[in-house]
Design a protein that fits this description.
By secondary structure, the chain is mainly beta. The chain has a domain at 47-205: Immunoglobulin-like (Sandwich), CATH 2.60.40.10. The protein has 14 helices and 52 strands. It has a 22-stranded antiparallel beta barrel.
Length: 1226
């Protein structure tokens, strides 16, 4: 098995140091639950398949000088199938060996073999064990050279002929500076060896036993940088910012996962990172500010920066300070390691043999077109033609050493990167709904199946011309007629499979453009050449020894991005558009002296975004034109008022908004390597500005429930509505809403915030087989304030049952300006260990514990409080019905109406918050046992756990008066409190087959269970609790719970071409070489859904619209007869609570999230071909197929009783789609 894939003079790529520097050192994204990963300490870099099979046999039988055989590697037995040498061609043969410096393997070294007669070249790169292999298709004499930044070039010769088809060529490299010094002094061989050994120890920065441990452990475990599985959130190691972290026993990343790139073709690895850099949007940049709760990802150019631990709850991670696009957690808490993404040492990282006078870069395009995709699945059973849509993405990356021709020369001290990327795409949107029929628009509800409606002025059933259930035409208001004009006509036949009568299949356009420039310069006499610390902003490794004296570098970045997209609405007239422009600037300075390194960064980010509908800032005011009075109705707020109806699709126009977000951040990281300790200290400061103009509901909204057209009967308890009577659409035609709301900005808001953090961390190699990784982080998140003191809330008394309500504003006595007391105790300890079990072959144990805070709620608090009176025209009006007939306000002419639903601005708002709101946090822990098995298989058994406290709960404490008509003193507000929890436990089994003979396989199984009682977890949810006096009833399956999940990947390199087994010469070899097939699959059980009933008078009156749950039918199975398109679950298992249970004191007993939704069935595949076009040029073509088997993936399920679709599938996933990509690298 070849070490990294043979190619002719492949251009040394950007990502070689992903292997050389340890991909696992890069903070990983957390998985569900956010369990931390131990420091993966024991060098978990198992040798790729080169250590088994023919290549391994040769290497094992003939170890290099001073080579220590890994503990898990024994000479292969002749009878072993894996040891059977592959058949070699009649001509040519195999060149292989190891590249080391002393006893330390050097991964990522470019090895080139050139035929001295024909000049033809073949090249590869060494794997993590320093092994390399070239399959040469023809005989001849070959000059073999190595290229590795900061090391002297190695040169040897080998001959392949009829009697010699297998040549072992080992290299011992020394630092280029040391070689020059040796040559100058003409030292003796013994002196050279001594100096070489000294340099190696300096380069590693660890005790000799730690350096030597690499050889003995490298075969046992892998770096764990594979696919993000169930191992939880990474617990990043300080070693990620050290210069030789991957050669120590501390390797970070997902616990024990096999490296996804070990032994793979490095050209493909570099290409993957190119895609991340170009497609991911210019190094982690993005709109900053309060509401984004940025997790601080540094991006490729921004360095390691970003959040490691955390994530699942909005928090950042150990990476604090992120690239110029993300100040380490923005609102999310930053991270432990806080590099600031600065990049560091000014080298060009991983361009081995880089020629500063020669530009390097890549150009790519990828796209898709609906004409070659499968048709979308039709829920109605009748296939419809898909509207034309597709996507086009393009990008350019360019790197060069800047110079002025004829005046200056390229310098290894200067590097400039230019990037440009963009997308032009259209995406299909498929909508189904129920809209009013022509008869219903005319007030005729006499059709079969419709509820009887009653005249609120007479309490008698409506009758017109002798036909019951028909509203007199004169009673239909002009306002209702105007709004009906925004409803399209039904376009589906009545009585269809899903009971919908309207279908819209359309597309939305989306455009993005991004550009960036980065300049790096190394300063001083000790400026590192290519390969300096930080390299391309974080991927490179130190280009010289740690005792090289003073090291300095600077880096400057500028990035710009623009995006624009359509806001598609089910009713086209109510759509809109949004756009944003972002700018970011970063400056970094790195200075190092011996084993001490300081990285300082300053960054500025600014984003300007707006959202508009088709009426914003025009001369058309649809509300006024329809006779609807909406206060503060300036051109900015023009739009169609929102209408909410039960059983009928409502109207919801795009809400206009304008915002500017700005973040200024400063970060400092100090790294010190001392003996077996690798320590890091740092701090970050961020100043966040968020300015916005808009309310959450500027166009106003009206809620119709059927309150006024239901039948009222007298009971011993007084007048009661008759269940099954009334119509929300009939109420709408009469212009009688049960509730109205408005939130319209009077002036611009200016939110301000300060965020501080400091941390200390130590990566301690206690023993050759044991590493501890421990530290603590303190964060201070000052709650947002408003520059002009324009924050307000309702101050109430929850301990006394919410019996008082007072509106308070910033500066109120006894409260801070933010109206929320800051949390000063955000200390987050973290610890991890990795232990290679003695006397138990190839076994590594990892464990970790971490804690993280999140401040995502702070942004929501501040935005809501800025939208409270007297600074915003806020109104929440509800008919105070209680046990009073709905006709009461009709008789007194005090009802809210569609024409006049907003009588006067409120003096007391609709939002209350506990001033001592506790900061949410998550604790996560994990245990992972890794065992290396024969045939290059690695198995991991793991456990992950997480517990989060102080999660958000939204209450709607309503005290319903028995007064007649509208009661202005009956305040209506929601209350935020930090009382909820989340907990998760998961067991995982992972099996990975390392790359061997071009084949790699991996699979992961996870069983997990998570419960919570929170209003919102990880951004999911958000509705108020059903009963604010019984929070224990909210506990149930979490929205994040996925009980079973199986995922896997595969990769096959086709065995054709000069370096393969078949068709090794001729035109056929060139045509067939470079092909590979890869893919992934994901099978999982579904998310959990809550059975509710459609909003009605009780929902609105209790303030719990969408939260009231159904009753469970005793003895009825939830799954009986379910699992189909038209009945996903047994609807007979649920019933609506009886109205006799009263308003707001009787609730359904069905648990939250008690219906299991559709599972996941996903399989994707890709076919790619890479062609070498010269020493530094290559071309790749790739076709990627999503949902390759065209499987119908059910998505949405209607769980709201009372709707015609109750229990049915309402949406499906995308069918098979094909995307093409072409990339030229030079």
């Amino acid at each position: 098995m070849q070490a990294a894939g043979v190619r002719r003079a492949c251009a040394p790529g950007v990502l070689v140091a992903l292997v050389a520097g340890g991909l696992a050192g890069w903070p990983q994204s957390p998985t569900q639950g956010g369990a931390p990963t131990a420091p993966s300490s024991v060098q978990s870099a198992a040798p790729p398949a080169a250590t088994t099979g023919p290549a391994a046999n040769s290497a094992a039988a003939n170890p290099a000088p001073n080579e220590q055989l890994p503990a898990s590697q024994t000479p292969a037995q002749p009878s072993s199938p894996a040891a059977t040498p592959s058949t070699q061609p009649a001509a040519g043969g195999k060149l292989h060996g190891f590249v080391k410096s002393g006893n330390i393997p050097l991964p990522g070294v470019t090895v080139t073999a050139q035929n001295t007669l024909t000049g033809k070249r073949y090249s590869t790169t060494t794997d993590i064990t320093g092994a390399w292999q070239l399959n040469i298709p023809q005989n001849g004499r070959y000059v073999i050279r190595t290229q590795f930044a900061a090391f002297a070039q190695g040169d040897q010769e080998a001959v392949l002929n009829a009697t010699s088809h297998d040549q072992l060529v080992n290299f011992q490299l020394i630092l280029a500076s040391r070689q020059a010094e040796q040559e100058q002094k003409a030292a003796q061989a013994e002196a050279r060896q001594s100096a070489q050994g000294q340099d190696l120890q300096q380069l590693a920065g660890n005790a000799p036993e730690t350096v030597g441990l690499m050889n003995s452990l490298s075969a046992d475990t892998d770096t764990g940088a594979g696919t993000v599985g169930a191992s939880g959130a990474a617990l990043p190691s300080i070693a990620q910012n050290s210069d030789f972290s991957d050669e120590s026993v501390s390797i970070t990343g997902q616990a024990g996962q096999v490296s996804a790139i070990a032994g793979l073709d490095m050209d493909r690895v570099r290409d993957a990172a190119d895609s991340i850099r170009v497609q991911g949007g210019l190094t982690g940049q993005g709109p900053q500010g309060a509401d984004s709760a940025v997790a601080g990802q540094g991006g490729l150019f921004g360095g390691f920066g970003g959040g490691g631990f955390g994530g699942a709850f909005g928090g950042g991670g150990f990476g604090g300070g992120g690239g110029f696009g993300g100040p380490g957690g923005g609102g999310g808490g930053g991270g432990f390691g806080g590099r600031g993404g600065g990049g560091g040492g000014g080298g060009r990282g991983n361009f081995r043999g880089f020629n500063p006078a020669q530009p390097h870069g890549a150009v790519f395009w990828d796209g898709s077109n609906s004409a070659i995709n499968a048709l979308p699945f039709s829920l109605q059973g009748q296939q419809q033609q898909q509207p034309a849509n597709g996507s086009n993405r393009f990008g350019l990356t360019f790197m060069t050493a800047p110079y002025i021709p004829h005046f200056t020369k390229p310098s290894g001290k200067d590097t400039m990167f230019l990037t440009l990327s963009g997308t032009r795409s259209s995406t299909p949107d498929d909508f189904y709904a129920i809209v009013p029929t022509d008869a219903e628009r005319a007030g005729n509800f006499s059709a079969a199946g419709l509820s009887p409606i009653f005249d609120p002025t007479t309490s008698q059933q409506f009758t017109y011309n002798g036909t019951p259930n028909v509203i007199l035409p004169l009673r239909i208001t002009s306002q209702a007629k105007a709004l009906l004009g925004y409803y399209p006509e039904p376009n589906l036949p009545a009585g269809n499979a899903l009971n919908n009568n309207y279908h819209l299949l359309t597309t939305g356009q989306s455009n993005t453009t991004q550009a960036g420039v980065r300049y790096m310069r190394s300063l001083g006499a000790n400026a590192t050449q290519p390969g300096g610390r930080g390299g391309m902003g974080g991927f490179g490794r130190r280009g010289g020894s740690q005792n090289q004296g003073l090291r300095q570098s600077i880096n400057l970045n500028y990035n710009w991005a623009h995006s624009a997209l359509d806001r598609v609405n089910i009713f086209p007239q109510l759509g809109g558009k949004s756009a944003s422009d972002s700018d970011s600037v970063q400056a970094g300075y790195t200075v190092g002296y011996h084993r001490l390194t300081s990285i300082s960064n300053v960054s500025w980010n600014r984003s300007n975004a707006h959202v508009i509908n088709f009426f914003t800032n025009t001369s058309i005011d649809p509300a006024a034109a329809g006779g609807i009075t909406v206060p503060n109705n300036v051109a900015l707020n023009y739009g169609v008022p929102s209408i909410s109806l039960s059983n009928i699709q409502g109207l919801s126009d795009t809400q206009p908004s304008f915002s500017i977000s700005q973040t200024i951040s400063v970060s400092e990281v100090l790294s010190w390597i001392h003996g077996k300790h690798n320590m890091r200290y740092g701090f970050d400061y961020r100043r966040i500005h968020r300015d916005f103009l808009a309310g959450g509901n500027a166009t106003g909204s009206f809620t119709f429930t059927g309150l006024f057209t239901q039948q009222i009967e007298m009971t011993p308890n007084g007048p009661q509505p008759v269940h099954g009577t009334g119509s929300s659409l009939a109420d709408f035609l009469l212009g009688l809403p049960q509730a109205t709301s408005l939130n319209s900005s009077v002036a611009k808001s200016y939110l301000r915030d300060n965020v501080y953090d400091a941390y200390a961390m130590d990566d301690w190699r206690v023993l050759p087989s044991l590493t501890l990784n421990y530290g603590v982080r303190w964060e201070f998140f000052a709650p947002y304030t408003e520059k002009n003191g324009r924050l307000a809330e309702v101050l109430t008394n929850p301990d006394q049952g919410f019996t008082s309500e007072t509106e308070v504003a910033s500066g109120a006595s006894g409260l801070p300006d933010s109206l929320v007391y800051p949390w000063h105790k955000a200390f987050a300890p973290r610890v991890g260990l990795a232990w290679r079990v003695p006397k138990v072959k190839s076994t590594v144990v990892r464990a970790g514990f971490g804690m993280n805070y999140t401040v995502g709620e702070y942004a929501g608090f501040a935005t809501t409080m800025a939208h409270q009176p007297p600074f915003t025209n806020e109104q929440t009006n509800e008919e105070a019905v209680g046990n009073t007939p709905s006709t009461a306000c009709i008789q007194t002419a005090t009802c809210f109406t569609l024409a006049n639903g907003f009588p006067a601005p409120a003096t007391v708002g609709n939002y209350a918050l506990n001033p001592h709101y506790g900061l949410p946090y998550v604790m996560a822990w994990n245990l992972d046992i890794q065992k290396s098995l024969p045939l290059g298989i690695v198995m991991n058994l793991g456990y992950n756990g997480a517990r989060s406290n102080h999660l958000d709960v939204k209450l709607a404490p309503r005290a319903l008066p028995n007064s007649i008509g509208t009661d202005p003193s009956a305040l209506v507000f929601n209350y935020d409190e930090a009382e909820a929890f989340y907990k998760m436990n998961a067991a995982t089994v992972r099996v990975n087959k390392r790359v061997e003979h071009g084949v790699s396989l991996g699979a992961n199984y996870q069983y997990s269970h998570a419960i919570d009682d929170a209003t919102s977890v990880n951004g999911s949810g958000g509705s108020v609790v059903q009963d604010w006096q019984d929070l224990a009833a909210e506990a149930g399956n979490s929205v994040l719970d996925r009980r079973h999940q199986v995922t896997g990947t595969y990769h096959f390199e086709l065995p054709f071409g000069p370096d393969k087994h078949w068709v090794t010469t001729g035109v056929g070899a060139h045509i067939l070489e470079g092909f590979s097939v890869s893919g992934s699959f994901d099978f999982a059980t579904g998310a959990w859904l809550t059975p509710t009933y459609t909003f009605n008078t009780t929902n609105v009156e209790c303030g719990t619209a969408g939260s009231l749950r159904l009753n469970r039918t005793p003895g009825a199975s939830i799954t009986a007869g379910g699992g189909t398109l038209h009945q996903w679950f047994n609807t007979a298992a649920y019933t609506e609570p009886s109205p006799t249970q009263g308003f707001c004191n009787g609730f359904g007993n069905a648990p939250r999230n008690s219906i299991e939704g559709p599972g996941t069935i996903s399989s994707n595949m890709a076919l790619s071909k890479t062609m070498q076009l010269g020493e530094t040029r290559s071309m790749e073509f790739r076709a990627t197929i999503s949902n390759v088997f065209n499987t119908v993936q059910y998505n949405g399920v209607s769980t709201s009783e009372g709707t015609p679709q109750f229990g049915e599938i309402t949406s499906v996933g995308q069918m098979r789609a094909i995307q093409f990509m072409a990339r030229f690298r030079f």
